[in-house]
Amino acid sequence: MATSANVQVLGAWSSPFSNRVQLALKLKCIEHEFVEEAFYINKSERLVKANPVYQKIPVLIHDEKPVCESLLIVEYIDETWAGNGRSILPSDPYERAIARFWAGYIDDKWFPRMKELATAAGDETKATVVGQLFEGFALLEEAFVKCSKGKAFFGGDDIGYLDIALGCFLGWVKVAELLGGVKLLDQSRIPGLAGWAERFLSHDVANDIIPDAPRLVEFYGKVQAAIAAAAKTAAD
Amino acid sequence: MATSANVQVLGAWSSPFSNRVQLALKLKCIEHEFVEEAFYINKSERLVKANPVYQKIPVLIHDEKPVCESLLIVEYIDETWAGNGRSILPSDPYERAIARFWAGYIDDKWFPRMKELATAAGDETKATVVGQLFEGFALLEEAFVKCSKGKAFFGGDDIGYLDIALGCFLGWVKVAELLGGVKLLDQSRIPGLAGWAERFLSHDVANDIIPDAPRLVEFYGKVQAAIAAAAKTAAD
Question: Is pLDDT at A63 greater than 80 in this prediction?
């Protein structure tokens, strides 16, 4: 069993990517120290040293060796503590390839649309982004149906790799619904994913890691204010 | 042993991403049928069906099941034919995480710069892109020194995952040197990588898969002409 002395996470409670690492560590019952980084203000020397290429959270530090990129960290945790509980990734190579494919889709295609929604100006632009998001959710609904094979989670009977990869964003999806005035996890459009989201958020592994929407909304407001203040200082 | 009847690759001889799949299959001694796709003109019905999300090459079809995304295909090949020869990925989880990290860097950061070089207009823009490419190569030189530990390849004594991930581009790097009039694999700047590139290109696994620069230059000219003709037709 790893102790908190040799496993640290440089992350932020509000970061879905950090939450991925927390979820994987909790699934594998790995004690660890969580080092909160104020990533939107400045980067700690330790973070810059641990992740010199991207200088971003999360970083897992295990026995003083840094591992970067959230999905790669989840795979590292699964492989390093293979004996702790069930595998996070599917054991079948084809199912693993499919899980990795959809995780890549989430990060490369779906998440950028989610970010666009936050900054979309004007009703027409917003409607376009929402339309693209619905298309993305429809694809993920198909993926859920295929991967879960009628069970509760992408990973089957319990949370696995794709549950972590997508579930980490659920707090922010709810923020987008609140601030954007749009129902994204719509039971009538994507019944599989809508049900999955509820099960995921009430699962023991997720419920103290994925932040509540109101807390994220408050945080979002503070970050926007900090960014505006920094811009004003720079302009003065 | 897989036979060509149950393994097909939808790809193109000129595509570095397709070459990755070919390299991995050759390393694992997997017979296969290579189906050439004229990807820059139109997409075959088979490709669109096999990769509906991205509709792009390469796709590996194994026992009629498609696997997409070149790096994921390489991992799939390594895991599916684990008993054939040595592993493509390192066996140690930390070394695997590092190899995956740099493969991601190559695709997400380094390769987009390479593409920019092809279209950079004006001496100033080109100089900026070349400068960024040199920075990228310097990082990859560091990665080579760390991963190879004084041996011939990223993978040690023989070609491994990162050798495939970066080596697949070497034909096009030489095209960029020819057309751009700039020495990228510069012995004085990046001695490790420059030596590695020569060893990689003369390796049995690579030498009939990675296309020669003159053949790629001719192909590049034809593609540009086809694109221009298509644009003219559309405009007429």
Answer: yes
Per the CB < 8 A criterion, the answer to whether B14 and B219 are in contact is yes
More confident residue, B219 or A1: B219
B150: left (phi over 0), alpha (psi -120 to 50) or beta: left
The CATH number covering residue B37 comes to: 3.40.30.10
The verdict on B13 and B112 lying in the same domain is: no
- Is B224 domain-assigned? no
Question: Does a structural domain hold residue B222?
Answer: no
Are A118 and A210 within one domain?
yes
Q: Quick check: A73 contacting B, CB < 8 Å?
A: yes
pLDDT of residue B168: 98
List, for residues A67-109, the tens digit of each pLDDT value: 999 999 999 999 999 999 899 999 999 999 999 999 999 999 9
Residues A76 and A101 in one domain: no
Residue B211 is classified by DSSP as P
- Is A146 an 8 Å CB contact of chain B? no
The pLDDT of residue A26 is 97
Report the DSSP beta bridge partners of residue A10: A35, A59
CATH number of the domain encompassing residue B203: 1.20.1050.10
Structural domain for A198, as ranges: 93-214
User: Considering only residues 52 to 71 of chain A, which have any Cβ-Cβ distance to chain B shorter than 8 Å?
Assistant: 53, 62, 65, 67-69
Q: CA-to-CA distance for B17 and B23, rounded, in angstroms?
A: 10
- Same domain for A133 and A43? no
Q: Answer yes or no: is B198 within a domain.
A: yes
Q: Do B72 and A97 touch (CB under 8 A)?
A: yes
Percent of chain A with pLDDT over 70: 97
Total domain count, chain A:
2
Tens of pLDDT, residue by residue over A5-23, are 799 999 999 999 999 999 9
pLDDT for the residue A4: 64
Q: Length of chain B, please? A: 236
Contact A100 B72 (CB under 8 A): yes
How distant is the Cα of B54 from the closest Cα of chain A, in angstroms? 9
Q: How far is A52 from chain B (nearest CA, A)?
A: 10
**Contacts (Cβ under 8 Å, ≥6 apart) of B59:** B9, B10, B11, B47, B50, B51, B66, B67, B68, B73
Region A31-48: mean pLDDT is 88
Assembly ipTM: 0.95
Residues B139 and B179 in one domain: yes
Looking at the fold, whether A59 and A103 belong to one and the same domain comes out as no
Contacts of A21 (CB under 8 A, 6+ apart): A9, A11, A58, A60, A70, A73, A74, A77
- Give contacts of B94 with chain A, Cβ < 8 Å: 62, 65, 67, 76, 80
